[in-house]
Amino acid sequence: MRHVLSVLVENEPGVLSRVAGLFSGRGFNIDTLNVGPTLEKGVSLMTISTHGEEQIIEQIIKQLRKVITVIKVVDLSNARAVEREMVLLKVNAADHNRAEILRIADIFRCKVVDVSVDELTLEVTGDQGKIKAIVNLLQRFGIKEFARTGTVAMRRSMQL
Predict the structure, then answer these.
(1) Are 86 and 66 within one domain?
(2) Radius of gyration of the chain (CA)
(3) What global pTM score does this model have?
(4) Distances 28 to 24, 48, 53, 56 between C-alpha atoms, Å
(5) Which tens digits make up the pLDDT trace of 29-71?
(6) What is the CATH number of the domain that holds 71?
């Protein structure tokens, strides 16, 4: 099962290594990892996505909570959460294909961030399903380069 962990940590050297070590020590791969500073000075947020059985993930969470520089760990897998990724794609865009590629980009609410004579670079933001769908559509034109961020996630606000 896929798990998304939100890990609040002190922004110190070695924290990333210790967190990654907990996963590799148990033979688990980190699918995506995104780390960035928070509004609180000296604190960063790690968003980690991985696959694994419930019991093992629970053990990893318990181990993470024991790391001194870890402030808080939340498993967003079973919570109502918003997830997003960002992708930059460089697509072959010959004159005869350019209009169709731009229509697809418009449908998916992409941004064109770079243009050349025979290429378009698009910025796509969305969940994994949206990204998979646009990649599948654009592959027939030829994707020349592909760069993808890790998942960022946040628990949804309580709805009335």
Answers:
(1) no
(2) 19
(3) 0.83
(4) 5, 12, 10, 9
(5) 899 999 999 999 999 999 999 888 888 888 888 989 988 899 9
(6) 3.30.70.260
